Sequence to fold (288 residues):
Amino acid sequence: MCILLTRRRALALPLLGATAAAAQVPPQVVASFSILADIARELAGPAALVTAIVGPGQDAHGFEPRPSDLHRVRAADLAVANGLGFDPWMDRLVRASGFSGPFVRAAAAIPPRGADPHAFQDLGNAPAYARAIADALAGLRPGLAPAIAGHCADFLDRAAATDAWVRAEFATVPAERRLVLTSHDAFGWFGAAYGVRFLAAQGLSTDSEPSAAEVARLVRRIRDSGVRVAFLETAGNPRLIRQVARDAGVRLGGTLYSDALGPPGSTAATYLGMFRHNVALMLAAMRG
Ligand code: ZN
Fold:
């Protein structure tokens, strides 16, 4: 279910003519990164123009906004960030741009899980993300609230079906084989939700680089763990994971999408498609 708390901000505007004209122009939504943009597109349908500051295949950690991003945020009607420390540059960008519209930190209602900001990697959090963004969209255009609520319910049905598929697939793999080696620690939420253990070459953010001693320790842990496949990620240092994989004698099993979607048209081009892509690669490695 997707019940919206519509804030009737648009109706409070004094100039009816301006309101009617504004209602014809699709609102512009700017999201900090591609996963949030996809969720916003699902919810808005064709009623809004949604763009991402950090696009598919790009790394949102430590992103340095460009001057053009200031203009995009200033021109937007709604700004959406993850929060939880994932995209703090978006807060600075919103402030610096002089943007005065609603700014949603979509993960704000989700109880934090330690310092891990990747709450979107657990489909159990999809309702919290969807409701936060849907409420903000409906607040922009109260007349669209019923359509947005319908899109939201449909999206959450598909998210729940994807979640059930992920659980059913991993249930067929013995627990000791549900172990995955990746570049950075983006899958803590995923691992806790779906019973998969992750070894990561880097920390919670791709900003940090491990020391030589830490790499040596990780290589020993990998050898002890019995993991045979390592994954590249769209975020994170590919050189590091390649080196760790080589030193530990494990092969590379493809690219997992952790903090960004795949390119348009690819299997991981949507939020739910990303889960199916990632889980299919992990299952192949676990069953291999
Ligand atoms: Zn990350």
